[in-house]
């Protein structure tokens, strides 16, 4: 899949270069479960290779919808017989997305998906205080966000530079775009900036209905470092994809090539360009006003700091909501207790969000972590923190309110 995905990125870069100079934080809102929208599928004649030992797969053309703008976003090819999972809503008032799920699933449970297209990261240090979320911190969150509709109980590996991708022809082309991006950013802010480019990968393991899975996330960082005397900032674009598969199928899945032939709907592109242009002008005006105030008086400087802190607090909270969920109720009736007993579920009040959730199974001991994952066991000596990532704590099931 690597070469085909890289080609899709290069296409998207060439399309997006007309308005990519805006590098604002991504808007946040979450999805908690798989949402596969039925779409009209038309056959195409292209084929995709799985490996030298397998028969080529026929491809079908599908359309991807933007729910926020109520229009077609793009079209791609998927292998015949695979399931398309799409649940996308762009931010109608700026860059980024309110939610993004775009993945293809084979009948054997292999999943190939894209990270949110042209997603931004933004991080800065002012007066010794760090705000925002940097690329390195977002990759583990993206792993959870994109994979959690399918998997649970994650054990992440270490994020490393993808030397093979960096040395490839596609990597060189993405790096050339990164240099051009840095030049545009320098012209926009009026001072020199440093290119911030890398291509990384991270392996991880998880479970899907108690079946061991392996996963891989690959991402490119196309950004800049701005050494402004008042504020050092790092911002740019994240692009990437992820692969999930049962352990015995992962080696094959990680090498799969699918010629998606991603094609942006021009009407959608024009609409998004107009929205981002408006946001860019607003951000530029705000930036100029903020710099003038910082030089003029300390109080104005403090006011701007408070405003930015609030903005990034909301930014980080929304990322948590993507992973932890945002729906439910703390009430738990006797009738709900009976239903749980009949259906074999256990209900909890999530200690991080205060929302009510249900998990399959009845166990003597339950644990949860900050990623909204739960583990039940009858072994009093089992410690999930010794096996899975996260800070696990004991949690008690809900009791009915009589």
What does this molecule look like?
By secondary structure, this protein is an alpha+beta fold. The protein has two domains: 58-279, no CATH class; 334-395, no CATH class. The chain is built from eight helices and 21 strands. The strands form five sheets. Strands 4, 7, 8, 9, 10, 11, 12, 13, 14 and 15 form a ten-stranded antiparallel β-sheet that branches. Strands 1-2-3-16 form a four-stranded antiparallel β-sheet. The protein has a three-stranded antiparallel β-sheet with strand order 20-19-21, with no helix packed on it. A hairpin with a 6-residue loop joins strand 5 and strand 6 (97-99). It is globular, with a radius of gyration of 23 Å.
SSE layout and pairings?
Layout: H1 2-16, E1 42-48, E2 57-66, E3 71-79, E4 83-86, E5 89-90, E6 97-99, E7 102-105, E8 111-114, E9 119-126, E10 129-133, H2 135-147, E11 152-156, E12 160-161, H3 163-167, H4 169-189, E13 194-208, E14 211-227, E15 232-246, H5 247-254, E16 263-264, H6 266-296, H7 298-324, H8 334-343, E17 345-349, E18 356-360, E19 365-368, E20 374-377, E21 393-394
Helix pairs in contact: 1-4, 6-7
């Amino acid at each position: 899949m690597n070469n085909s995905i890289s080609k899709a990125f290069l296409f998207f870069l060439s399309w997006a270069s007309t308005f990519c100079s805006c590098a604002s934080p991504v808007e946040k809102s979450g999805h908690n479960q798989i949402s596969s929208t039925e779409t009209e599928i038309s056959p195409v004649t292209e084929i995709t290779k799985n490996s030298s030992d397998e028969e080529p797969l026929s491809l079908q053309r599908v359309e991807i919808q933007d729910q926020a703008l109520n229009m077609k976003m793009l079209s791609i090819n998927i292998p015949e017989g695979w399931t398309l999972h799409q649940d996308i809503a762009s931010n109608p008032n700026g860059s980024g997305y309110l939610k993004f799920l775009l993945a293809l699933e084979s009948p054997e449970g292999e999943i190939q998906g894209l990270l949110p297209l042209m997603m931004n990261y933004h991080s800065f240090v002012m007066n010794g205080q760090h705000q925002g979320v940097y690329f390195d911190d977002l990759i583990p969150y993206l792993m959870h966000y994109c994979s959690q509709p399918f998997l649970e109980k994650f054990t992440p590996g270490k994020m490393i530079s993808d030397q093979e991708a960096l040395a490839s022809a596609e990597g060189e082309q993405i790096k050339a775009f990164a240099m051009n991006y840095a030049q545009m950013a320098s012209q926009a802010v009026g001072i020199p900036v440093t290119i911030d480019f890398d291509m990384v990968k991270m392996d991880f393991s998880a479970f899907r209905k108690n079946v061991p899975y392996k996963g891989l996330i690959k991402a490119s960082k196309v950004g800049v470092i701005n050494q402004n005397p008042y504020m050092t900032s790092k911002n740019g674009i994240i692009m990437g994809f992820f692969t999930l598969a049962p352990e015995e199928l992962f080696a094959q899945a990680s090498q799969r090539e699918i010629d998606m032939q991603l094609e942006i709907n021009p009407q959608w592109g024009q609409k998004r360009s107009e929205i981002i242009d408006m946001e860019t002008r607003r951000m530029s005006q705000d930036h100029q006003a903020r710099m003038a105030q910082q030089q003029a008086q300390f109080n104005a400087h403090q006011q701007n700091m408070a405003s930015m802190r609030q903005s990034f607090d909301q930014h980080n909270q929304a990322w948590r909501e993507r992973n932890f969920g945002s729906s439910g109720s703390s009430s738990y009736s006797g009738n709900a207790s009976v239903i749980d007993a009949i259906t074999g579920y256990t209900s909890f009040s999530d200690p991080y969000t205060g929302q009510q959730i249900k998990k399959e199974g009845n166990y003597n001991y339950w644990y949860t972590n900050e990623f909204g994952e739960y583990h039940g066991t009858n072994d009093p000596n089992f410690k999930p923190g010794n096996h899975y990532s996260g800070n696990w704590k004991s949690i008690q099931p809900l009791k009915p309110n009589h």
